[in-house]
High-affinity zinc uptake system protein ZnuA (Kangsaoukella pontilimi), 371 residues
Amino acid sequence: MKPLAASAVFLAVPAAAVADVPNVVTDIAPVHSLVSMVMDGVGTPDLLIPAAVSPHGYAFRPSDARALQQADILVWVGPDLTPWLADSLASIGPDAHSLALSGMPDTILLPIRDGEVLDLSMGEDHGDHGHDEEHEDHGHDEDHGHDEHAKDEHAHDDHAEDAHGHDDHGHDEDGHDDHGHDEHAEKDAMHDDHGHDDHGHAHGGSTDPHTWLSPANALVWLDHITDELSEIDPENAATYRENAASAGARIEALKGEIASRLGDSASRGYAVYHDAFQYFETSFGLQAGQALSETDGAQPSAARAAAFRDGIESGAITCVFAEPQFADAALRSVAGDASIAVLDPIGSAFEPGPELYPAMLLAIADGIADC
């Protein structure tokens, strides 16, 4: 952590008031929200990428480099979402931590979906990849999978270790509440063999990077965030753990609220600009939406545009959703007279902070339910 500028400060105010809070930098608004939940009452993390901007093609700025240089820890989704950020890890200080959430043990990972027309069977087929017995062994008990597998795949991803020599921090296992995690069935349905060591870039990797749209992943990540912050700032470890427990209980309740709001929406035929919602769909048993663009939001192919148009004309697509992070000209050109609503995977309509993550997921549920 960064030293205070002058020792005189210690004479002017009580010691508690000058506690050195970790300088935490996050990549996207949903991750910022989860970290804000854990840091509540201690400090506020910084946000690199505005929620109205797509992380896929974000232009790294000099101010971002300065933020990384001053960071004690970078908490980010991982290189599948932001390969440019992986390339910028050299900007962070030599003692800074890098926590790539999608590489954490027990994180649900799904492969990028192929083809112009997406259907529910693709989501259902992911469960049978030999992870049943093995995955159950990771169980969400008090140690949250901090076993040999977890030690092998600790928070410090390959990029951070190569650049900064960070070794495994050997987090102890005390204080891990289980948040009532009961999503083994969901994990069995969602986990695949694209594994924790797949650090391919969004344009060449095989893993769908939109991992934050699974509430089960958010629950897992709260513990990893807490572990890292507690190691950097042990004086506030008890607060971090209490906050994580409260946040976990809130997300568990949120899952039930979302399911209630979705009601009988499982078979609704909807379409989005890019294939960002697979984790949300699989979490709540929804039919896969049709996407005009692939997971990285690249310019749509002619084949995708044709399939998209056919879906609207046939009535298979009943709702079309734009996303605030992308211009909607291409979407409108193929949607014809279909009305276009908004479905936002990052939460640009909400103020960054602890309330954003729940509000974002509820807004997605409401959008699909209103379809």
Summary: The first helix runs from residue 8 to 12. The CA atoms of residues 267 and 287 lie 5 Å apart.
